[in-house]
Amino acid sequence: MYINSGIPCVKKQVEILIHCVLLILQIKNFTLDLLKRGSKTWVPTLLKELNTMFTTFEADLSKSNTASLLPALQKFLFNFFSLTILGADPSVSPEIANSGYIFLDSWLAIQLAPTVSIGVLQPLEEILVHSFAYPFFLVKGNYEKLVQFVKNEAKEVLSRAQTEFQLTEQEAIHNLLFILGFNAFGGFSIFLPTLLGNLGDEKNADMQEKLRKEVRDKVGVNPENLSFESVKEMELVQSFVYETLRLSPPVPSQYARARKDFKLSSHDSVYEIKKGELLCGYQPLVMKDPKVFDEPEKFVLERFTKKKGKELLNYLFWSNGPQTGRPTESNKQCAAKDMVTLTASLIVAYIFQKYDSVSFSSGSLTSVKKAS
């Protein structure tokens, strides 16, 4: 009787598991499709939104000699990804246009707070911050405004999710917001300030000169010459982006469970891994391996150039896989891996088309010198 009564339960669990696996595959395929379709408008939308952001920066600099980076940057990111990923224009709703990025920030904050260090005296931080999940009602109102925005303004994407990928409307909406908010907006909100900080450090004047020369030799000062193809020809610009990702990966830790027994090898050891064991990879440590990278603690602009630099891309892990890897529906590598590096390269190229030099300090833009 015990065995017989358990069969329906086991069958139900198997059905749920199969449904979850299929759903994950559908979502991964849907994400790859979004990126492919969005690539058609990616560059012109990026350049338009960059123009808007840097116009704001210049206006702020004229008033107070400093321009706070993060608010304008996050507004730029929210608008850009809404237009390219969702096909939705935030300007149709004044509230979303002005505060959409703040709504995403608050939603991200309650998810990430239990996992990040905020510098409170231990053990108070562990007890008060890391020991429980924060309740959804804290951000429910703002999140529902974002849901309504997607439902109203991303109808073409939602329709494709339902007809081509067999997702329900609710599954599509919540996964679109996760892709927009966590993957795209959240990742770039961490990555771009680091990228711009490395770029605008006053100690890196020689590096700016080299990057500026490469950009203008390849595409001049006309933004219409910028494209995915043109930045692929900018070896130093791409190396600058890769080196930033090497030293400061946006998501430093990855977790997974072993799917089977296997042996994990390092330079001088072999570890027996059993199926089901929890694995953690800490990228900032791995990316400073002195047996792979010369002067691993130092930012080296030319590190990923020429033949040796191209070979090092096999060891550049920032996206759940090597830079030379390819995201597919069957792996966990960042679906937008290549879009991230190309977009960052476009931003660097745009800056050196527009300006001879830029300076950033303590999260602010402190000076720009327009292209002569």
TrEMBL record:
Coiled-coil regions listed in the entry: none
UniProt-listed SUPFAM superfamilies: Cytochrome P450
Annotated InterPro entries: Cyt_P450 (IPR001128), Cyt_P450_E_grp-IV (IPR002403), Cyt_P450_sf (IPR036396)
Alphabetized UniProt keyword annotations: Iron, Lyase, Metal-binding
Matches recorded under Pfam families: p450
A molecular function (GO) term: lyase activity
Name used for this protein in its record: Fatty acid hydroperoxide lyase, chloroplastic
Organism whose genome encodes this protein: Solanum pennellii
Gene name tied to this protein: LOC107025342
